[in-house]
Amino acid sequence: MKPAGFQGATWGALFVLAASVLWGTTGTAATFAPDVSPLAIGAVAMGFGGLLQAAIAARPMLAFGSSLRRRWRTVALGSLAVAMYPLAFYSSMHLAGVAVGTVVSIGSAPLASAVVERVVDKRRFTRRWVVGALLGVSGAVLLCLAEAGHPDQAAGAEWSTPAGIVLGLLAGLTYALYSWAAHRLINTGVPSRAVMGAVFGIGGLLLMPVLAATGAPFLASWQNFAVGAYMAIVPMFAGYVLFGWGLARVRASTATTLSLAETVVAAVLAVLVVGERLPALAWAGAALIAGSLFVLTLPARRRRQMSAIAPDVPLRQSREDTSEATAGSAPGASASSSGGSGV
Question: Domain locations in the chain?
Fold first, then answer.
């Protein structure tokens, strides 16, 4: 069960940052299974990760089934985006490189999220979010430019890099869509465990045919199998547990901006583990992203400042805990169903 002190936008930001650290390991992990296709990597990671989300959320999903069914369009949109995201994301990294693919996918998500929230929810952004987003996106652009101009870039990548960038933009859009859908569902009073279990569980089911068609290499060696298991359990399952907690406390646009931390983690691991070398421009981009995270997570000093950051906090954020309490008292539910391993 989440401690009572783990409430508020600051904790939500920290949960999203922790998830981003786990996600930042995926590109490096995938390099340990070079004979596995990016479609298979994406399908096993998000597919099994989503099914695990649904498994631990079975009771709250049943308890709040009627609420989820009433909002089936939002659930369907989020689930479809969940299924599309890993296929676009890992294909982007495969074609454009780990750094460029990660930067474009995650760096474009805040802008896509801004468009979604402005068009659908008519929500205006705070000055804090604008400053943080500008810093973060600028840093992501510098990282991308640094990688594109790297002297070690493979020959013949003229077509693959643009294709990878396009797929990265698609990944950013789908990431923004499922973040918005999950946040919207949580904001109606459905607990985050039930929301994440439903959206990611259905998305995982949609990925099973892709895994069946492409996943044979995972059984070819223990190393490939270990990579697949790690991807599904650690960054995808545990990462999205943390992400669900974060979405219950901050709006989707803030969460997608905070997840820019994934690009920095991916770059650092590429240097320390894979052996890549990053130019000074890339480190400057990482510094800008770090600055954006500082701006977005810095708590307000005085209560009267809450009016300036209130849009970053769900209007009905306290309903999650109330709803989980209701789920625990529903027939067939128990207090143990809200254990620490669930969203």
Answer: 20-300+307-314
